[in-house]
Amino acid sequence: MLRWSTILVPLTAYTLYEDKSLLEARFATIVTAVTISLMLYHLYAVKYVIASKSTKDLPFPIIVSALCVTFLWTLYGIAINKVALQVQTGFCVLCLCI
Fold it and tell me: Tell me: the pLDDT tens digits for 50-94?
């Protein structure tokens, strides 16, 4: 909880004090950077998968549900025509192509 609080409290404070006309673009950039770093964080398990040649250590239900939710958010971003949301969540489409 302390780790998340050290991230979320400053971000919430930033949204309260930033100019509302600049907030969407700047906050979207910050959230996109955080989202990409969270996605890259989970790649540490790939070296164990390659070394052991087994995927038993990967949480398959969590991976599938995260992929589904991210895909739905991408569709929502396309539906409302928000580029920031499309870029932020569009990495699931990129992962599917690889």
Answer: 888 877 777 778 777 777 777 888 888 889 988 877 877 776 666
Long-range contacts of 5-13 (CB under 8 A, 24+ apart): 7/34
Q: What is the DSSP annotation of the chain?
A: -HHHHHHHHHHHHHHHHS-HHHHHHHHHHHHHHHHHHHHHHTTHHHHHHHHHT--TTS-HHHHHHHHHHHHHHHHHHHHHT-HHHHHHHTHHHHHHH-
**Could you tell me if 91 and 36 are in contact, meaning their C-beta atoms sit under 8 angstroms apart?**
yes
Token couple for 81 = 């025509």
Q: Who's near 88: CB < 8 A, 6+ residues apart?
A: 28, 31, 32, 35, 77
Structure tokens at 38: 């969270």
Question: pTM score, two decimals?
Answer: 0.56
